[in-house]
Amino acid sequence: MRSRQRQHLFIASLIMLSSLAPSLPAQAYDGLDLYDCVISDQDRFNSKGVRLTSVRNILAQDRANYHKFNRRDTLDSADQTFLTPGQRQLWQSARVDIDPALRAKILNGGAVAITVYVFSRDWIEVREGLIPPGVS
Questions:
Q1: In this model, does residue 29 exceed pLDDT 90?
Q2: Extents of the domains making up the chain
Q3: pLDDT tens figures, 6-20
Q4: Are 8 and 28 in contact (CB under 8 A)?
Q5: Is 15 helix (H, G, I), strand (E, B) or coil?
Q6: Are the beta carbons of 88 and 64 closer than 8 angstroms?
């Protein structure tokens, strides 16, 4: 009889857990903005065709290409922070945290998928790869 009670308790536990799973919250991001983009060769040159040599300028050009010139890479997504030239100046004044290896990839060419986390007007973080599933 005890094994049957344990079996019922185990089944009841599984049912309860499975009913809770869909309602588990996604990982929340509490910053100002979050977006994916691909840094490609078109982002490494300004609108006059001059090669950009800083990551800050390349990331600002990516957003200019997205918002102003409609030159978007396939995986580029929208943001609400860098809509205007004035707003893109934030790339020059904010602290930008980026791994040195990722910095080198962005500067040296080839397509690089990144996620940009705008935590505040003073702090931006750039990570390699796209937004992890469940982060919103």
A1: no
A2: 33-128
A3: 544 444 443 343 344
A4: no
A5: helix
A6: yes
